Each structure stands twice: as C-alpha cells, then as structure tokens.
Amino acid sequence: MAATGVLVVAAGLATHLLAPDGLLSDAAGDALYAVLVYLGGVFLAPRAGAWRVAVGAYAWCALV
What we know:
The chain is an all-alpha fold and 64 residues long. The protein is 83% helix and 0% strand. The protein has one domain. The radius of gyration is 13 Å and the shape is flat.
C-alpha cells in the first residue's frame, strides 16, 4: 500500500505540474486525493472491510 501511495502522489504531482489548469486537471487531482485517502485507510486498518474503508474515505473527502 505504501508503494502504491508513493505512485499516487507522483501521479498527483505530475498532474499538477504538467496538466493545464482546468476542470479535467482539478477532477484528476481530486480523484487521486481520494485514492490516496483510501490507500491510507487500508494501510492503517488492514482488517477493515473494503466498503468500510471506502465509506470512510468518501466521508473524509466530502468533509475536506
């Protein structure tokens, strides 16, 4: 999970630096942030079900 998180961060930085500002790059950044939150949840609570982590990640992203 940690290695995948590093790849997601790299993709987010590449999107931020290389993609032109606009709706598509904003949506890609938001999606990558949500994936990173999900991976963090799976890393911190490996025994939690996938749906539980997904709902938690969604709730966190919605609050942020």
